Amino acid sequence: MEMLIQKLKTKEVQKAIQNLKGYKAPGYDLITGKVLKELPQKALRFITIVFNAILRLEYFPAQWKVAQVILIPKPGKEPEEVKSYRPISLLPILSKVFEKLILKRIKPVLESINIIPEHQFGFREHHATIEQVHIIIRKIRNALEGKMYCSAAFLDVSQAFDKVWHPGLLYKIKKSLPHNVYQLLKSYLSDRYFLIKYQEELSDLYPINSGVLQRSVLGPLLYLLFTADLPTMEQTTTGTFADDTTILVSHKDPKEASRKLQENITEIQKWLKIWRIKVNEQKSLHVTFTLNKETFPPVTLNNRVIPQAKTAKYLGIHLD
Questions:
Q1: Burial of 267 (0-12, 13-18, 19+ CB in 10 A)
Q2: Residue 63 carries which DSSP code?
Q3: Domain residue ranges in the chain
Q4: Average pLDDT of the chain?
């Protein structure tokens, strides 16, 4: 079905531009936030016409689909090594202004169909890290007070944002959102390129074939849509904050706790394979929270035993 997207107004565009932070670095087009804030009313009306044409045609301009990657040297590292630099992707600021405005239009649709799961706390209003931590700690504390075993797996997703599979993401968008929103997001994702800038030198353009865009406005939302159908089970507690994922099971029998945890991990394993998401098994952790001292049955992912540990770090909090 089609979604009636309300046309943008000049005052709305002007407000979004005035809210820009002046110190933000520009993209390859060198148009800064300060430049946009100095534009006369006539130019703002023209930008509004362009924005509404994008909505009407469901076509994202090619000039806004080029990311300039700058390299920041890491202190004390060898300059000849690639790993000695931290890449930062810079997008055209006018593109980010449009993304903010279209996000406001899409959010009510997402809320109406309730597509983002309750266990996902990343990039959502009124969902802070501290609230997610409270949920996990409450689950562990209740298990300890009930003299149960709380078996938990902390999964390490490899390059989560950079490896998002575009055809799979577009399939999920088409399945869930109105057709015109799908067409616009399809245009937004397709035929994207990046170039590298180091000092005054520029590389050639190279295609972006996977991932959601670093430092973009719509990127976090697209990642949440891609991972919204992560398998969950009634007897387990799932906690996700963007790509930080943990699964917990409480039971009076440690073998039963590990068995139920393994069932959920097996379902997640199948899901990871379908949607081409990789998890680093050796960096993932299996922690059993208990007041008893004994060994606990291991759990596996991709036929590899997840390392057992006595402590795990989750959202900046050490749990032991």
A1: middle
A2: G
A3: 10-115+166-209, 129-160+229-319
A4: 91
